[in-house]
Design goal:
52% of the residues lie in helices and 6% in strands. The chain is mostly helical. The protein has a domain of 92 residues: Multidrug-efflux Transporter Regulator, Chain: A, Domain 2 (Orthogonal Bundle). The protein has a two-stranded antiparallel ribbon. The protein has a two-stranded antiparallel ribbon with strand order 3-4. Strand 1 and strand 2 form a beta hairpin. Helix 3 packs across helix 4. The chain is globular, with a radius of gyration of 20 Å.
């Protein structure tokens, strides 16, 4: 399974992915409210892909662009509002989930002109051609999610 497909990452995995020490991530959690991984019942941090993106962006702002912590906090808020966080490390050539979501939203709002004197009407909503396959895919995804949640002791029955 590729790194970006995992639901949760340990602090060690995230530290390795973005090339910082785990204590640096713990410190950033105290300074950047946006970096807030979930914790299991045992207190172990469980970072989501978005947390990894945020940590990667923080690293670039602090180490690459030489922002102060206060400046990086402000810039991070601006970048997040624009949906311009760094892509998942190693996925620079691929579209970010935010850009895909924005594209889907734009496509939903797209209008097409009909033969009614140029009156615009909303585009038709996408209809699944094979709903049974989508249901099977969702069941598989839910099952995998439950297994991962059990592994990290988040419950999941």
């Amino acid at each position: 399974m590729a790194e970006e497909e995992k639901l949760f990452y340990t602090i060690g995995e995230v530290a390795q992915i973005i090339d910082v020490k785990p204590y640096v991530l713990r410190y950033w959690e105290t300074e950047f409210r946006k970096l807030n991984p979930q914790k299991s019942v045992t207190g172990q941090r469980a970072y989501r892909a978005r947390d990894v993106q945020i940590a990667s962006t923080i690293k670039r702002l602090l180490y690459g662009e030489k922002f102060t912590i206060a400046g990086a906090v402000q810039k991070l808020q601006e970048l997040e509002a624009k949906g311009a966080l760094d892509p998942f490390p190693g996925q620079e050539g691929k579209p970010s989930p935010a850009s895909v979501q924005a594209g889907l939203h734009a496509a939903t709002l797209q209008v097409e002109t009909h033969g009614m004197g140029g009156v615009a009407a909303p585009a038709r909503a996408h209809v699944f051609e094979r709903p049974q396959e989508k249901v099977r895919e969702l069941v598989t995804l839910i099952t995998r999610t439950k297994e991962i949640l059990k592994k990290y002791q988040f419950g999941g029955r």
